[in-house]
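Section 4.2 – Deliverable D4.2 (structural model, holo form)

The reporting period included a commitment to supply a predicted holo structure for the target in complex with magnesium ion. Inputs used:
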Amino acid sequence: MRLTDVGEFALIEGIRRLMRGNYDPQIIAGIGDDCAILRPLPDQDLIITTDTLVEGIHFHPDWMNYYQIGWRALAANLSDIAAMAGRPVGALLACSFPASRQKSHFDQLIEGITALGKHYDCPLIGGDITRSKRGIFINITVIGLVSRDKAIRRGSAQVGDRVWVTGWLGEAKGGLEYHRQAPPLKPEQFSSTLRRFLQPTPRLEEAAFLVDKISLTSMIDLSDGLSSDLRHICRESGVGIEIYTSHLPISSSTKALADSLGARPVDWALHGGEDFELCFTSQETDMEPVVREFRERFGIPLTAIGRVIEGRELSLIDERGERHPLPPCGYQHFRK
Ligand SMILES: [Mg+2]
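Output (structure tokens):
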């Protein structure tokens, strides 16, 4: 069955039925009226973020199924909510499909979005479905909440803070290169790397854990790559940052994949985008118990990778202790 056989209203009605019973009391009205209605408590701030995925640029249906495409689309937004230490309340989906595409593909996309949304209490509360002449466009807007004035922003890093990241770096880049190059390798060898690329987990629970345990001065999620995203903290906070090559957390699976493809895993870790890990700064010195508990609870490392310094520059200290400028080589749209 093709989308053209079904029509927009039936598609919306299908999603509305799917969302029945999924709304928190803060959602007064979800799908089914001109606008969704939310009623946050008086001691909360609303946080809002949006992200667009374009077929052929952000995803290739040959590399991942529609469930994974939907999952990733929402994960990218939830990662931004995590980066503010907020919690999601609901999502709006605006998508465009060529009319000739299969209804089952649309259904799988919705399934991927709603499966991840269910896990993090982020139901679809509205949106729009249109036809496109070519290719699929998926835009998701997520509305979240954070206790008043408690959002962790990019602009308060202090000289002397340590720089931390959650999880492993370079995994999404590894997954991307694996699919792009289609090498004659067994995917099972690199399953953790490929899984992170296909179905990333937004670090919402990790962020909530961190703000509960320690005080963070700034935070960002890694969507464009460490070398690009850290620059935002430098600029907004008016500080420099130095990163130590030898501290970058790179999994053995990612190292093995990079070796097989003749790439440098350090380059993937520094410049690869879409890891959706959290990077934050903190003055906390006694981190050992937090690092241990984090690892036990979430099964991923929490690693100090650098330090906030005077100046405005982002630099890399290599294995020999030599300092190099770290240029932004992560992904940027409209850049060659
Ligand atoms: Mg972000």
